[in-house]
Specification:
The chain is mainly beta. It contains three helices and ten strands. An eight-stranded antiparallel barrel has the order 1-2-3-6-7-8-9-10. Strand 7 and strand 8 form a beta hairpin. The two termini are 39 Å apart.
Length: 217
Amino acid sequence: MKSARSSFDLFSVRAALACVSLSMGLVLFTPSAEARDQVVIHNGRTPIGYDFELEPHLVLGTNPPGYGTGSGVGIGARGSVVVAPEGFIRNVNDSIAVGFGLDVGHYTGSWALRGYRDQCLHYEPGPAGTSICTEVTSNGGTYNYVFIPVVMQWNFWFTQRWSAFAEPGVDLYFLGNHGMGVSPAMYVGGRCQIADRITLTVRLGYPTFAFGVSFML
């Protein structure tokens, strides 16, 4: 398994934080946007009263944990159960949920953003205590991942339409014949309400990115 340092894509996390900060800043400090959309960051409760968020989405990932290399695409779904509607911070419109999901992605080594190199997948004992490689990737190989994220979702509601969240947690993953493993996970994202109890949702981080639709139930 890769080290925690190589598993965490720090560039992706930093880019995600920058994107979310910029989008929220534009919403809060642009006069025309504020005139159209009431600011609710200091209200006591979320503008959308809900207990469960269901989010089907498309998935994009790169630099996966485990033996996989390259980048991949797929589909998935996330469910988030609200456990603290009033959040952690007094006089700030935040809330806490527990999120869990299922993501399936197909990865290809030749799509690697930083290049790839073949690696040994299986070793057999050799003479004099040595190990002999009996299975090696070819041109980076292809891999099918199944991710099961489990996170704490910390929501911040800025206006009637716009919210952002951070999600620290873990991702369990299954990689075909190579078994299962666990990876640290960190996501940040945002929502834009497009209809009653329906939002467009973007999630950036590691080990996957996602774009989908949330149904606030």
